User: Fold this.
Amino acid sequence: MASSRKRRSSDLVERVGAELVRHVPRGARLTLALSGGVDSIALLDILAALAPRHTLALDCLHVDHGISPNASQWARFTRAAARRYGLHCAVRKAELAPHRALGLEGAARAARYALFAGLTADFVALAQHEDDQAETVLLQLARGAGLAGLAGMPAVRPQSGRGRRPAPVLFRPLLGVTRAEIEAFARDRGLAWVEDESNADTRRARNLVRHRILPLLREINPQASANLARSAALMAEANDVVLAVAADDAAGAAIDGRIAVSALGALPRARAKNVLRLALMQAGIAAPDSVRLEEALRQLLDAKADAAVRVAMGDAEIRRFRGYMWVVRLVADVPAGYRARWPGGRTWPLPALGGVLRLKRTTGRGLAVAAVQFGGLEVRVRRGGERLRTDARRPRRALKALLQESGVPPWERARLPLLYCAGELAWVAGIGVAAGLRAGPGEAGLEPVWEASAGKHPRETAANPGLRSKPVIK
Assistant:
């Protein structure tokens, strides 16, 4: 019996090792999401054994959702469990409030993944397994999901990063392993784990599927979980093909890097919706159901030319402007009367505006250094009535007109940084430097460059630096 158990444990370790070889480069930084349940505890044991072999920098993260009365006990347990392997386990509290609209389970999941995205690791290892995959497929089927939803959870999935730092890749090395195999491994190894009391609550959809629906399906076919997981893999392959078609169609509809609504309308309806799905996916937005997507396409194609098309898509909107489609993230309004004084240096973070203003040393371009040294710099936002002279041979012109001519979308104008020098409007992103403050030939200058933060505005970076919302398809 002992030798049988040893073979079983060794087999699971080797299977996870094969997933590491397939997906994780040697020397990578890997953080294990350690809940304290049997799945993550078993994966902790396995990864701790494999880390030296694969030269992995391994640590752990426990997410405290603040829901269970046992949360503090679980946090202490996970720290102690990691310590037994000589590993550090950080404990982070999840911020559920920004995600309340998703319900308790959805908010917990969104907050958890937001923490994962902010880690400095290369990969975050999750202990989801074959039975979890089967549950996911059934839940997605009940929701009427398409190919992407029915594909379930991928073994590896990139995340959207914050700012310039790439987010760690989600890594699920146990998707081919059943819950029963994991529990047998944990018992063979004499591992201890905690039980989340909420897992028995069948008022929660996933628990209902786990405790009632999957057992019934196994009466029909004992291999139901494995078959559902296999179907998810087939759906994932089909979805890859669909996305490849969408990318080809999007490239054909792209003009100046943006999706032309006229070109979108020339596609068959199903393929046009497919392009919208791809655009949302590239923007990090979960694709809505087909009814909502159809409504977005209808408004894009059928609304009057001068209509302001705005279709809500979770924490983003699909908009139409001057014949193009944009995916725009919803962000907090800029405080009224916003002002920020230059702290010195060449990098000037402006988080309220969602970006960084960089001042590059130049010669014969940008703001004259002498003017800056005399008057100092201040950033404001539009209040109306601003005027700017960009050509010394012409009079000052209304900033509103300059922005319209430059094609700055209306939703960006309120967040656009206006740079003042000694109280005079000196520069506007995408418009240029005031003629009277421009560095002359051979004169030292500072060239302002506005870089929108990818973390807060993933679709808003620069054609002119940091100005226009980034096209939905590059």
Observations:
- The chain is about 40% helix and 20% strand.
